[in-house]
Amino acid sequence: MAGLLVAGTTSDAGKSTVTAGLCRAFARRGVRVAPFKAQNMSNNSMVVRALDGTFAEIGRAQWIQAVAARAVPEPAMNPVLLKPGSDIGSHAVVMGQPAGTVSAATWREDRAPWAAIAYDAFDDLAQRYDVVVAEGAGSPTEINLRDSDYVNMGLAQHASLPTLVVGDIDRGGVFAALFGTLALLRAADQALITGFVINKFRGDLRLLTPGLDSLQQLTGRRVYGVLPWHPQVWLDSEDTLAVPAHVGDSTTAIRRVAVIRLPRISNFTDVDALRLEPALDVQFVSTPADLAGADLIVIPGSRATVADLDWLRQRGLDHAVVAHARSGGAVLGICGGFQMLGEQISDPAEVESDRPTVRGLGLLDARTVFSTGKTLGLPVGTVWGVPVEGYEIHHGRVEIDGAEPFPGGVRQGRVFGTMWHGIFDSDAFRAAFLEQVLGAPPSGVSFAEARESRLDLLADLIEQHLPAGHLLELARRGAPDDLRSVPPGGA
């Protein structure tokens, strides 16, 4: 099996970015490459078509990695997706379909069947592609979970994958993190760690060189390279650690967009396209004062709609949103945010909460009823004479009374609700919305072209700062058999 595992010292160290960059770099060399992540824990997801034509759900990061690889996204690329609904429980998606819930109490017993499914999915991709670039999860040195691990070194052992470890120097302590990650692994796992990548470096590389030399001498592993921090690199994230506080140039923007940063926010990539608009200053906010002066308030998706609606009320954000709407301000609710804007949320089957009925903000004549069945789709439509498309992932069914239709939902005055994610990715719709609702001039920005240019930029950085050709050969030939163990080992 030709493959490579990209592990990391922590969450958000850069595993997803390096994986995507390698996928694009290999694809540009004519290699048929597929991304893979055995288990993803994220509320950012995407709808794709399975090989049998049915709709399925995978992590958003694996979707963008497939785009980078110029491959068709499919469930095998992310066989297990966990969507946190609370601090101790998650909704499971297995091979793209709902598979109940998992809690801390049932964690270990659930992992065994998932491991078998994940290994089969990896093996299937390895049969159909030249190379599989797998992304780990969190850190491979979660020694309390190693016996049941199938995402990091468990996967590496299954497929004999040479593994590189990515560390984020922006956080500090990167040398200790890289050395400690290796040293705490079992000897058999250490034998698959072939080298390191340092990510997000700013400054003079000469100052880093003594540390790189020492790390190589201490570990016997190569530092493959140092990737610089670059302001134009961004990807569809899977981790809420990546939600920015502020995006845009407030000195040139003519309209301000306030996106409420819900505690259980999901699919916050819905506003990525707005971040490219030069007329917009996009901010993620969490207090009523932050909403003052906003031209548009966006309530994004949520994996726990009722709990996040309670959070809005606890912080007084509900009154601020209602006051903004009643004074003529524009409000957009997407999926869970749409449900919050309605009259009522009912959950008789206790899909998301243990409360059968909850009052909404009352800004839209709509009612939501949650059921165990899940809606997945890739809908298309037309509004203001322009096409729009998106994707649907939700349990709630919204009932609408007598309001003006809007793609995936409803409009009442300057309050909009939609169950479709990704609507702003449609350039013509985004331009029409900004002009009709905010009076912002069209920019001519193509979101698809911007995404492609960023993936190519990422591949360029990989080619410039890492030995991409060597890593491709490593993926094909496997880890060398002369890598020494590093104490303490045997963890």
UniProtKB/TrEMBL annotation:
Domain CobB/CobQ-like glutamine amidotransferase, by residue range, is 256-428
List the PROSITE patterns: GATASE_COBBQ, GATASE_TYPE_1
Active site at C335, H421
Pathway it works in:
Cofactor biosynthesis; adenosylcobalamin biosynthesis
Residue limits of the CobQ/CobB/MinD/ParA nucleotide binding domain?
5-234
Keywords from UniProt, A to Z, are:
Cobalamin biosynthesis, Glutamine amidotransferase
Tell me yes or no: is Coiled coil among this UniProt entry's keywords.
no
Write out the similarity annotation. Answer: Belongs to the CobB/CobQ family. CobQ subfamily.
UniProt cross-references to PANTHER family, sorted A to Z: COBYRIC ACID SYNTHASE, DETHIOBIOTIN SYNTHETASE
Q: What does this protein do?
A: Catalyzes amidations at positions B, D, E, and G on adenosylcobyrinic A,C-diamide. NH(2) groups are provided by glutamine, and one molecule of ATP is hydrogenolyzed for each amidation.
HAMAP family, sorted:
CobQ (MF_00028)
UniProt-recorded name of the protein: Cobyric acid synthase
